[in-house]
Amino acid sequence: MNAPHLPTLVTDVAEARARLTRRRGFEEPNLSPRAQEGIRRVFGADLTADEVVDRILRDVRDEGDPAILRYSAALDGSHSAELEVPRERWDHALASIDPDLRVALDIAADRIASFHRKQVRTSWIDWAEDGALGQIIRPLERVGLYVPGGAAVYPSSLLMTAIPAKVAGVREIIVCSPPQADGEVSPLILAAAAIAGVDRVFRIGGVQAIGAMAYGTATVPHVDKIYGPGNIFVVIAKQKVYGAVAIDQLPGPTETLLIADESADPELAAADMLAQAEHDPMATAILLTTSRTLADAVLAELPSQLAGLDRAGIAGQSLAANGLIAVVPDVETAIDLANAYAPEHLCLLLRDPWAALNLVRHAGGVFVGEDSPEALGDYTTGPSHVMPTGGTARFFSPIHVGEFVKTISVAAANRKALEKLGPATMTIARAEGLGAHAMSIQRRLNRG
Prior knowledge:
Helix content: 40-55%
CATH class of the largest domain: Alpha Beta
Number of helices: 18
Distance between the termini: 85 Å
Strand order of the largest sheet: 1-11-10-9-12-13
Strand content: 15-25%
Structural class: alpha/beta
Number of strands: 14
Shape: globular
Oligomer: single chain
CATH topology of the largest domain: Rossmann fold
Number of domains: 3
């Protein structure tokens, strides 16, 4: 039996596979007692998270700013009537942050921009004897970024979404972030907004922020697409407004899966697991290893490292509830299990990680080698750390420049194209019962 606050150890591959098998799609988890108490206080009834989101979105859509102010007061304790944060507060925040932090954020911003510039696509037209075909690549006009900023503040998440949008050429970028205890948006978020070059920042959190960006109000403009992580209520809200706007993905609790062989350092493997676990009690840290010796060493190492963490309570809850160490016969089996799990982060702590990389099919991001910890990727390597979770890495991608553009097809046929393609076109149209389609072609052919 494992000690409290340690991950489960399994040595049977079938059991490991069973533990790593998860149902696809988003499922609403059970709410904590604290969340349930808050719902009763605000709504006067026991509601599910889904019902709470429905009510808030409906009110924001129907009432606009008054509903936002009401819910901000009830849920975030913000009683300010000022929803937008003036630009001078961004500038003051940027000038006031620790100089070393300013330098670090600038380094991160430069790395993120450099990585994403390599992804830029351009429009193209291909001319031939029967006309031309091509694509027009256009950036979205206005996007909305949700940046958590209440109990936890992540200026890095703002950089990781805003900078790819800037590189893509988005015309207007707005940010919604919840107020802190003092009723103001975190200075770190405002400083990051200034560095990233966003256009507007609003002091709005939770479902009401998603509703404001999706539907628009007198103060908050509606956007074309919403990006960014959030709590369970924000995730449900993004799912519900899809169609009124586009969304990037449904990012849930964060997760890391390490694959390690006997060459791995147990101290570093334990540190990487804890770096993930400290995010949230619902975070998941998994180690698949070919070495029972390494597995035992990591289990022995975790308690001492855990004891020295400021967020030891959170990390311990995460490891106990969701952590797993599984001993497998070989690296190929570990990769097969990882592909089935489709983790947000996949870390290869192997003697030959590049050979294993060729076997990876499903992951949000891959961190190759022991000197490439996921924690580095959270801030300064360059790729966005907003990645798909919950197995959605099978079909979603991390935030990238392509998320901020759309493609318009261009077709310019000429007489040769009509003569070459017209008969086949009419045959298919008539088979589908669409005679007017066929006649649209025939009338042109009749003109000789």
